[in-house]
What we know:
Elements: E1 3-13, E2 22-38, E3 42-49, H1 61-70, E4 78-84, H2 95-110, H3 117-132, H4 140-145, E5 148-154, E6 157-162, E7 168-175, H5 181-186, H6 194-213, H7 216-222, H8 229-232, H9 239-248, E8 253-256, E9 263-268, H10 270-285, E10 291-297, E11 304-305
Parallel strand pairs: 3-4
Antiparallel strand pairs: 1-2, 1-11, 2-4, 2-5, 5-6, 7-9, 7-10, 8-9
The chain binds adenosine-5'-diphosphate.
Main location: cytoplasm
InterPro entries: GHMP_kinase_C_dom, GHMP_kinase_C_sf, GHMP_kinase_N_dom, Homoserine_kinase, Ribosomal_Su5_D2-typ_SF, Ribsml_uS5_D2-typ_fold_subgr
Pathway: Amino-acid biosynthesis; L-threonine biosynthesis; L-threonine from L-aspartate: step 4/5
Amino acid sequence: MNEIKIFCPATIANLNCGFDVLGLCIDNIGDEMIFRKSPQKGIKITKITGADIPYETDKNVAGVAALAIIENLDLEYGFEIEIHKKIKAGSGIGSSAASAAGAVYGINELLGKPYTKKELVQFAMKGEAVASGSEHADNVAPCMLGGFTLVRGYNPLDIIQIESPSELYAVVLHPQIEIKTSDARAVLKPMIPLQSAITQWGNVGGLIAGLYTKDYELIGRSLRDVIVEPLRKGLIPNFDNVKNAALNTGALGAGISGAGPSIFALCKGETIARNVANAMQNAYLETKIPFDIHISKVNPQGVKTI
Ligand code: ADP
């Protein structure tokens, strides 16, 4: 095999209570990438559409992730990469993670799959560091593996795939404003009160238990964030109205997707998801800020060859 085309899905990180550790893969929005073996050694990005991101291999998330996987291999050939972005950078639905996970998945396929998808996460994290300054896996892991993932720890990297009930739908409203991850980090406080920590880890446990036992009520009760959302929501115009509109229309829970500005809701079943999407949309119209909205089932597969 000398060439492949892949789909790299968008992801929702944090899921309210799981700041920096939980993530979820969605289905109908994602980038496409094409990989070709080339006689020239190394990694060359030959085409980018849909985004103004760097062509330089060492500045592009995809380039750095791709270099990480071939670093210790003594290859007689190299790779060309085309990146076709559909996920806007700075949208909060894992734009950089899609490129990072996609790059290592694509190269691994052309190498004859020396690594499992789980093993690939560590290389993709090196790419993510270009966008955010630190190697983190809360978007990369669900993009790579699909479904819900928990980053239990980094030392050593310990990623847990979590089963999810089949009727779970995500709605994502993406306002067309950019929030830099660094700005969204700057509003956070380094210390948290013990009482908030207790509430938060109770909810993380509840969410995981709810997913495994397919208890939608428990999932809903647990989708709360008393630590990060109160500090970050001011960065997103009309956040409270959109969130309340989602909850009042039957969403199990709603909150900030990743570092924002996207707002997500989780719902039981497609009908409720459509009603929730309408309500969120109506609540956002007041802002006059353009936005797009996506309804998606949980994507159980993650990045894939198309
Ligand atoms: P997101 O959370 O949506 O991934 P970030 O703000 O974390 O957004 O990362 C986007 C930053 O990474 C932008 O500054 C962008 O220019 C840079 N970047 C470099 N390469 C890529 C790439 N292949 N895809 C997306 N963003 C990239």
